[in-house]
Amino acid sequence: MANPSLLILAGDGIGPEVMEQVKRVIGWFGDKRDLAFDVSEDLVGGAAYDAHGTPLHDDTMAKALEADAVLLGAVGGPKYDDLDFSVKPERGLLRLRKEMDLFSNLRPAQCFDALADFSSLKKDVVAGLDIMIVRELTSGVYFGEPRGIFEEGNERVGINTQRYTEGEIDRVARSAFELARRRSGKVCSMEKANVMESGILWREVVQKVRDTDYLDIELSHMYADNGAMQLVRAPKQFDVILTDNLFGDILSDCAAMLTGSLGMLPSASLGKPTENGPPRALYEPVHGSAPDIAGQGKANPIACILSFAMALRYSFDQGAEAARLEAAIETVLANGARTADLMGAEGGTPISTTEMGDAILGAL
Amino acid sequence: MANPSLLILAGDGIGPEVMEQVKRVIGWFGDKRDLAFDVSEDLVGGAAYDAHGTPLHDDTMAKALEADAVLLGAVGGPKYDDLDFSVKPERGLLRLRKEMDLFSNLRPAQCFDALADFSSLKKDVVAGLDIMIVRELTSGVYFGEPRGIFEEGNERVGINTQRYTEGEIDRVARSAFELARRRSGKVCSMEKANVMESGILWREVVQKVRDTDYLDIELSHMYADNGAMQLVRAPKQFDVILTDNLFGDILSDCAAMLTGSLGMLPSASLGKPTENGPPRALYEPVHGSAPDIAGQGKANPIACILSFAMALRYSFDQGAEAARLEAAIETVLANGARTADLMGAEGGTPISTTEMGDAILGAL
Ligand SMILES: CC(C)[C@H](C(=O)O)[C@@H](O)C(=O)O
Ligand SMILES: CC(C)[C@H](C(=O)O)[C@@H](O)C(=O)O
């Protein structure tokens, strides 16, 4: 049987340097665990724009649709700030999400024991935190039409459209409920049903899916503004949070920052489950391209490596191997290995991106 | 000359009980500081629905348009959860905002020294925090058309429209810049210009207003998701934050919760400055109607009293009197007076809503 295929899109900024370490880890699984992947690489974001004048070449898009999983580094940077909206680095990522139909975005916000002091929150508020945010990723205001800047009378008006069909809500709700079954069985859905009709439909459909096919799930609903408050006040009240594309963008970043260590957080974006073979999937760290430290060998590769662990779990049904990799990372942290972003008040000497890769391979 | 007029809309839940204490404070300013107001009262939210079948009667709307300032308690409660969208308590509040044209919503997130321990954040991250969020309040996705739930093929679709004209952005930007001039001169504007065209227009217009009429202001731009992160990570980097209606809803609640004491936070919603006389204005606490403790005499009246202080400052040009009231509240807190919501881990006996009112009048 052919090896499963991985397409690596390292992207911009620190993307390439953290991805180097991921490639070493992938190699290790091939050598030592008999888990070989056919790896290919291509460009996305500003790097693709520089080469082709577009943040995602059609050939790359085609390869992504063929791959068993895509690993992405990060996109964007100040160099591209003045580009037209239609060719900005982000458009490459958004096109991947849309054309691969990756409607379910899983963003764990997990606080690592060794790093609980890093949070700006009190230790008892965040120690042991383990939330999974399920964000709808292919619809809502990110993609709704009409959109644009239009002339109206003698001024311009900026328009975007929040738009959700029942089917779109139904399928992402199911993915959250499935996930919750493998966790605590608790889901909190967030919208603004008190001011938005799209939120009313969201709430209704989510409840109906629960009442029809997931009676074992404990479902609650919360307005998104209150959700932001509750995340800050007492995040451990949550297990799975289900929300739409735009609220999910903000709430998942808020939740991520509660842990205090963005450089640690992976994400998975999944398409429809298929009968034979994995769903389409893209894995990427939550952190951005961090242009300020790019190319200096300082970046923390852990979020990107943990994204590969998520790929092992969600695309390749290798939960035990994913856990092995995650455990190696916990060991390395417990032993005190720290990249620059993980330097606390105590000080110490940070290790480089490559040294962190070395340490993780060592622990494996 | 006639006294300035105040319309009190106490609303639902704890609204009436906290407003009782505000009325005592208003009385004190009339008796002792020769600052008398003509106070009238009316219904809003669920209370108005119970009496009239609508969350805001047309007569009340007319009175609000006539008043020099409106003080609102809170709206909503589980009793009204199943009402049709069009008559939900929130619609009363949204109608007031829209018809009074209160486009500039000021939400201070201030951490009181005596209460810094209450925050879920580390003390050094929030002690001395003093942010002002300026939220656009009469446009955006809250009011944009088309909106609703529509049939499409064989399913339904929920639609809302994010919509901002140049004029709407211009005027709220000015209000933020004016405010910043009386503070640190620093404004950070937040949107999602990387994914939304309405955000692109927002960024462009805000920058243009700055470059034309507010060259003394230091303006920066941030994506709203990063804004949520930065608020959690290091909130003191901000002074004035300018943002739209929906992002403002979420970010201001997030910022409010950083302080740990929602029962302390007031807000002001202001219309266009006028030549002779105050702008239209509505003042309300940030906290909601708290149905779980309503009617028990436990609620903290301070947020509502501080909202009256904002009225003194922004509607009646009585900054010194506002400061007097604020100082009285700080004294009371420093002396250890605590309603139930302000009980920390140390314990102690909470005082009642009325006793907190007594203490504040005593300190005045
Ligand atoms: C880069 C940007 C387009 C993206 C988004 O807004 O979805 C990012 O913030 C994210 O959350 O993945
Ligand atoms: C009650 C609700 C309609 C309102 C809003 O969403 O604006 C509230 O959350 C607020 O922030 O004042």
TrEMBL record, chains A, B:
Binds 1 Mg(2+) or Mn(2+) ion per subunit. NAD(+) binds at residues 77-90, 288-300. GO terms for molecular function: 3-isopropylmalate dehydrogenase activity; magnesium ion binding; NAD binding. Keywords: Amino-acid biosynthesis, Branched-chain amino acid biosynthesis, Cytoplasm, Leucine biosynthesis, Magnesium, Manganese, Metal-binding, NAD, Oxidoreductase. One of its GO terms (cellular component) is cytosol. Its EC number is 1.1.1.85. Coiled coil: none annotated. Mg(2+) binds at residues 225, 249, 253. Its cofactor is Mg(2+); Mn(2+). It comes from the Bacteria. One of its GO terms (biological process) is L-leucine biosynthetic process. The keyword Nucleus does not apply. Pathway: Amino-acid biosynthesis; L-leucine biosynthesis; L-leucine from 3-methyl-2-oxobutanoate: step 3/4. Belongs to the isocitrate and isopropylmalate dehydrogenases family. LeuB type 1 subfamily. This is 3-isopropylmalate dehydrogenase. The gene is leuB.
